[in-house]
């Protein structure tokens, strides 16, 4: 079974969340490339998200559909979230990039809540596949 098939076997809310996550962490940051003050943020977010996605696929290949799959998000998105949040508040950042960064941070933060909980549960012994 592929990762996409495993996700498709999950409850509908999980499938919807994965689509929201894709839009918020991969697609929406591309809009940040429009404004010069937010270009690095857009590029960094897309790169971190692509690397996190690759890490999730790699872990799936190694371990299957387990709670540890969020670990690449934890490692890459935690510092990204802190940096984006600070960047959003800098003077000179135009209004629309601020709003987009806020939306991206919201999606990433929600994902990280799930990811931290799942990673902790895995480390505490819940290692069976979903």
The CA-CA distance between the termini, in Å, is 13 Å
What form results from the Cα inertia axes? Answer: elongated
DSSP strand count: 0
Biggest sheet descriptor: none
Mean pLDDT: 96
Tally of structural domains: 1
Sequence stretches where pLDDT stays below 50 over 5 or more residues:
none
Q: What's the SSE blueprint?
A:
Elements: H1 3-8, H2 12-27, H3 39-63, H4 71-88, H5 95-123
Structure in words:
This protein is mainly alpha-helical. The chain has one domain. The chain is built from 5 helices and no strands. Helix 2 crosses helix 5, helix 3 runs antiparallel to helix 4 and helix 4 runs antiparallel to helix 5. The longest helix is centred in the C-terminal third of the chain and has 29 residues. It starts with a helix and ends in a 7-residue tail after the last helix. The mean pLDDT is about 95.
Would you kindly provide a brief summary of this structure?
With 130 residues, the protein is mainly α.
